[in-house]
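Appendix C: a fully annotated inverse folding record. The material below is reproduced so that readers can follow the format used throughout the book. The structure is listed first as C-alpha cells, followed by the designed sequence.
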C-alpha cells in the first residue's frame, strides 16, 4: 500500500510541478499581460470608474439589494460569494509560506501577479456573463465550460476542441472542489481550532495515530461533525442561501482581519520602511532572500510569489466565474469590474496586510530570515501575539484560529457552488439528480477532511486546481478579441456617452435583445 501511495505521490508531484511551476504561473502572467494590453490597461486608465462602480456603490440598492429572481443574486452577493471562495487560508498561511520560502521579495511578485490578474479575472467574468444561459431550474449557468464550448468551439473547425476542453475543465473543477475546496480547508480549520481552543477531555481521546505519527482525536471528529452539519444546512439550501451567508460573513471577516493587521502595523510603524525595503530589494537581487541561508534564486522568489498570489485570488483558474455569472447584471463589463475589485481586495488589501503584519512585527528577522516558528499559519498568530497578548492569554492565537475558521468555512461554501455548476454541465439532461448526489457527497467528505492526516489528498486536488486553469486560459486568450470588443462597446456607451452604439450583451440574440431593451427603457446596467 505504501509503495502504491509513493508512486501516486511521485506522479502527482511531477504533474503538479509541470502544471504550476513550469507552465501555469508563466501562462497566467502572460495572459494577464495580454488582456491588460488589449484593454488599454483598463485597471489603471479607468481606475476611477471601476472603483466608483464597485466599492463606491456598496450602499446602492441596485447593487446590494436582493433580487426576487431565482435565476440570479445581487452583484454584491456575487462578489461576496466569490470572495468567500478566494479569501481563504491562502491569505493567512499562504502569504506566510511565500515569505518563509521565497523571502520578502515574494510579496512583490504577488502584487505583480495580482495587477495583471485583475484583467484576467475581468475577462473571465465578461465571458461568463456573455455566454451564460438559464438551466431547467430557471437559474443562470455560466463559466469556462460554456465559453470554451460556445466561444472557442464557435471558431471554424474548433467545435470538438472546445467541447473537450470544457469537459476537462469541469471534471478538474469537481475534483478540486472535493480537495482544495473541501477537505483541505476543513483540515486547516479543525487542526487550528482544536489546537487554539483545546478541550483536554476530548483532545486526549485519541481515535487513531497515522504512520507519520499524526494523531486524530475525538475532539477533531466532533468539530468535523458540527462543520458537516453547518455546511449541509447551507449548501443543500442552494445558491441563494450560500450567497445570503456569504454577504453576512465575508465583509465582517475581511474588515476584522484588516483592522487587526493595521493595529499591529501602526504599532510597529518604525519598521514599515524596513519591511517595504526588504520587499523591493529582495524582489530583484540575484540572491533574493536571506543571506544567512545562502540566498534563494530569483526564479524561485518570482515563482513562489506568483504562485501564492494565484492560490489566493484564483484569477485565471476560471472558478469564481461560475458564481459571478449568477449576478443580476445585464452588462458583462459591469460584472467584470467586480472581478477587478475581487482581486484587488483579496491580494492588494488582505494579503498585503498579512505580509506587513509578519514583516513589521519581528517574527521574522529581516536580515537572516530566522523565524520564531516553522509553521506558516502559526507565524501569523505569533505576529498577532506581539500586540494582542495579555500575560498568558494569547488573544492573537485565538483571533487567527477564528479567522482561519471563517476564511476556510466560506471557501468551502463558495467551492460547493463551483462543483455544483461543473456537475450540472457534465450531467446534461440528468443535472438535477446529479447535483443532489454531488451535494450529499460534498457534505459527507467534510468528515474525511476533519480526520485527514496525510497531505496527499490536498496535493492531488492542488494539481487538479492547477489543471483547471490551462483550458480556461486557452479559452480567455482565444476570445480576447471578443473581450476587447465588449469593453470598447461599454466604454463608448457608458463612459463616452455615445447614444448610437448597439449594446453587446449576450451570445444569444434573444437575451441580447431583451437586455438591450431593458437598458433602453430603465437605464439599468
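Designed amino acids, in order:
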Amino acid at each position: 500500500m505504501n509503495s502504491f501511495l509513493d508512486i501516486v505521490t511521485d506522479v502527482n508531484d511531477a504533474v503538479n510541478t509541470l502544471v504550476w511551476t513550469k507552465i501555469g504561473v508563466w501562462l497566467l502572467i502572460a495572459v494577464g499581460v495580454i488582456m491588460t494590453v488589449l484593454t488599454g490597461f483598463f485597471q489603471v486608465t479607468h481606475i476611477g470608474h471601476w472603483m466608483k462602480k464597485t466599492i463606491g456603490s456598496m450602499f446602492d440598492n441596485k447593487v446590494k439589494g436582493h433580487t426576487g429572481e431565482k435565476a440570479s443574486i445581487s452583484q454584491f452577493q456575487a462578489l461576496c460569494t466569490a470572495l468567500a471562495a478566494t479569501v481563504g487560508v491562502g491569505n493567512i498561511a499562504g502569504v506566510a509560506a511565500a515569505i518563509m520560502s521565497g523571502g520578502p521579495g515574494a510579496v512583490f511578485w504577488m502584487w505583480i501577479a495580482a495587477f495583471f490578474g485583475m484583467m484576467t479575472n475581468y475577462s473571465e467574468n465578461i465571458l461568463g456573463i456573455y455566454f451564460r444561459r438559464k438551466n431547467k431550474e430557471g437559474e443562470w449557468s455560466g463559466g469556462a465550460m460554456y465559453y470554451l464550448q460556445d466561444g472557442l468551439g464557435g471558431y471554424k473547425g474548433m467545435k470538438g476542441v472546445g467541447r473537450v476542453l470544457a469537459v476537462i475543465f469541469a471534471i478538474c473543477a469537481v475534483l478540486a472542489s472535493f480537495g482544495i475546496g473541501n477537505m483541505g480547508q476543513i483540515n486547516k480549520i479543525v487542526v487550528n481550532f482544536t489546537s487554539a481552543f483545546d478541550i483536554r477531555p476530548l483532545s486526549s481521546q485519541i481515535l487513531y495515530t497515522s504512520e507519520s505519527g499524526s494523531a486524530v482525536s475525538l475532539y477533531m471528529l466532533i468539530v468535523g461533525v458540527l462543520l458537516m452539519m453547518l455546511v449541509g444546512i447551507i449548501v443543500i439550501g442552494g445558491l441563494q442561501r450560500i450567497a445570503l451567508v456569504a454577504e453576512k460573513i465575508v465583509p465582517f471577516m475581511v474588515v476584522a482581519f484588516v483592522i487587526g493587521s493595521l493595529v499591529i502595523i501602526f504599532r510597529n510603524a518604525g519598521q514599515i520602511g524596513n519591511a517595504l525595503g526588504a520587499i523591493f530589494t529582495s524582489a530583484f537581487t540575484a540572491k533574493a532572500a536571506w543571506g544567512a541561508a545562502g540566498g534563494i534564486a530569483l526564479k524561485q522568489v518570482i515563482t513562489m510569489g506568483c504562485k501564492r498570489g494565484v492560490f489566493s485570488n484564483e484569477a485565471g483558474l476560471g472558478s469564481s466565474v461560475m458564481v459571478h455569472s449568477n449576478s443580476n447584471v445585464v452588462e458583462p463589463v459591469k460584472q467584470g469590474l467586480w472581478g477587478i475589485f475581487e482581486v484587488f481586495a483579496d491580494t492588494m488589501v488582505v494579503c498585503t496586510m498579512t505580509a506587513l503584519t509578519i514583516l513589521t512585527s519581528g517574527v521574522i528577522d529581516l536580515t537572516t530570515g530566522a523565524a520564531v516558528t516553522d509553521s506558516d499559519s502559526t507565524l501569523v498568530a505569533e505576529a498577532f501575539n506581539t500586540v494582542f497578548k495579555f500575560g498568558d492569554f494569547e488573544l492573537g492565537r485565538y483571533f487567527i484560529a477564528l479567522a482561519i475558521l471563517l476564511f476556510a468555512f466560506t471557501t468551502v461554501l463558495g467551492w460547493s457552488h463551483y462543483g455544483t455548476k461543473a456537475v450540472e454541465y457534465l450531467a446534461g439532461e440528468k443535472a438535477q439528480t446529479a447535483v443532489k448526489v454531488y451535494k450529499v457527497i460534498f457534505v459527507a467528505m467534510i468528515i474525511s477532511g476533519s480526520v485527514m492526516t496525510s497531505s496527499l489528498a490536498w496535493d492531488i486536488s492542488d494539481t487538479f486546481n492547477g489543471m483547471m486553469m490551462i483550458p480556461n486560459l486557452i479559452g480567455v486568450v482565444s476570445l480576447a478579441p471578443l473581450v476587447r470588443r465588449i469593453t470598447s462597446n461599454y466604454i463608448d456607451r457608458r463612459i463616452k456617452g455615445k447614444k448610437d452604439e448597439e449594446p453587446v450583451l449576450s451570445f444569444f440574440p434573444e437575451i441580447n435583445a431583451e437586455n438591450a431593451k431593458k437598458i433602453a427603457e430603465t437605464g439599468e446596467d
